[in-house]
Amino acid sequence: MSLHSNLDTLYRQVIMDHYKNPRNRGDLEGDALHINMNNPTCGDRIQLQLKVDDNKISDAKFVGEGCSISLSSASMMTEAVKGQTLEDALEMSDIFSKMMQGQDYDDEKFELGDIEALQGVTKFPARIKCATLAWKAMEKGLNEEEDK
C-alpha cells in the first residue's frame, strides 16, 4: 500500500468519525447567532449557532442534515472556531476556502488538525460546496455581527 492510499484511508476514517460522532451537534441555550444555510444542489442544510462574547466565539453548535462531507465539516469547523476571535475565525475560513480551491495557503498560524482530512474533497468539485457550507454560514453570521 502506498503512502498516498494510506493517507486517503486515514482521511476517510477521520471524516466518517466526525460524521458518525459529530462534535457540537445540538442547540445552544440563551442568546446566540442563528445562521441558516442550505446547498440546493444536494439538499444539505445547516443551522449554525454561534455564541459571541467580547469579540470571541465562546461556543458553537449546529443542527442540520446532509451528506457525510457537509456534516463532518460542520463538526470540524465548530471545534476549530471555539475560543477564536471573530477575525481569526474569518481568517481560518479563508484558509479553508483556499485549501478547498486547491490554492496555496498559510497553515502556520492555525493547527488545522482534522480539517486537513477534507483536502481530498478537492478531487470532487461537486462536493466542495458540501465541505464549505458550514464555513460559509459562519462567515455570513460573523460578517452580519461585525456590521452591527
From TrEMBL:
One of its GO terms (molecular function) is iron ion binding. Residues 11-130 form the NIF system FeS cluster assembly NifU N-terminal domain. Pfam families: NifU_N (PF01592). InterPro entries: NIF_FeS_clus_asmbl_NifU_N (IPR002871). CDD domains: IscU_like. GO terms for biological process: iron-sulfur cluster assembly. Belongs to the NifU family. This is SUF system NifU family Fe-S cluster assembly protein.
